[in-house]
Amino acid sequence: MEVPLSWQLAKLLVSIGVVLGLSVIAERVSTRVAGLLAGYPLGTAIALFFIGLEISPAFATQSAVHTLAGFTATLALGGGYLLCARRDGLAGVLAGTAGGLAAWLTVSLLLTQVEFTRLTGTLTTLAAIILFIRLYRRVPETATGARGGFSWAALGLRAALAAGIIFLITGLAHVMPAAWAGVMAAFPVTMYPFLVILHLTHGAAPVATVIKHYPAGLGALLWYALCVSLTYDSLGLVLGTLVGFAVATAWLLAWTRLLAWRAARLAARPRAGT
């Protein structure tokens, strides 16, 4: 099926528009919050929506089921990047990218051999989330330093990377089975370019903080993928997407409140002992 130019332009504009906010949040708020919001269904939503628009809602529904398990490969990418990107600068970015993509491809190859259901796909990623949260416990917290913020060139590079990844995923979906399309839709479209720019501008330490908190934010992505896998066929792409975003937002708000409550309790403990 030939994709209309208007759809391609819309995909380009949406891809560029939604990825810029995360950079501002990391600079103005914190890398911890940015790590949590990196799990918000931005890139995945764009990929699944345009897969459904360009191919069919039924194909996007099948893909979304595999996306549920595909987030495990995304976690592997973060782990591979963290292990290999120990140096600052371009050398660290290249090493982290190589390690992350190798981990992502290895896990993706394994995942696409399995016929996942909504339940087994969700349980697979939940187990991976628990594992990676435990593995990242000793990763230190580092805020972005005052280095002048993200330049327009850096933001432009990040937007271009994200848009390129979206076009690659949706293009390959036309010639790949639903299992691969779903796993590719779970690729961290917004997080990976963000890691690259953050690494180049602020070094490896803040990148480790973002990766550390990324698993905790994946709950929103899981809820989103689960919702659209249930609603694309019955409600259509637009309403299904809106329902998915509503559920994902509710989860993220509840999760951040829980984290804030837990942090307040931990902060109050030393005072109680004095």
* Shape field: globular
- The percentage of residues in β strands lies in under 5%
Rg (C-alpha, Å): 18 Å
Helix content: over 70%
- The low-pLDDT segments are none
Distance between the termini: 70 Å
Taking the sheet with the most strands, its summary is:
none
Alpha plus pi helix count: 11
The total strand number stands at 0
- Give average pLDDT, whole number: 85
Label the structural class.
mainly alpha
Helix and strand pattern: HHHHHHHHHHH
Domain module count: 1
Transmembrane segments: 6-26, 33-52, 64-83, 90-110, 116-136, 148-173, 179-201, 213-232, 238-260
Keywords: Membrane, Transmembrane, Transmembrane helix
How would you characterize the overall build of this protein?
Keywords: Membrane, Transmembrane, Transmembrane helix. It is a single chain. The chain is an all-alpha fold and about 270 residues long. It is about 80% helix and about 0% strand. The chain has one domain (about 5-274). It is built from eleven helices and no strands. α1 (about 5-30) packs antiparallel against α2 (about 30-35). The chain is globular, with a radius of gyration of 18 Å. The termini are far apart. The mean pLDDT is about 85.
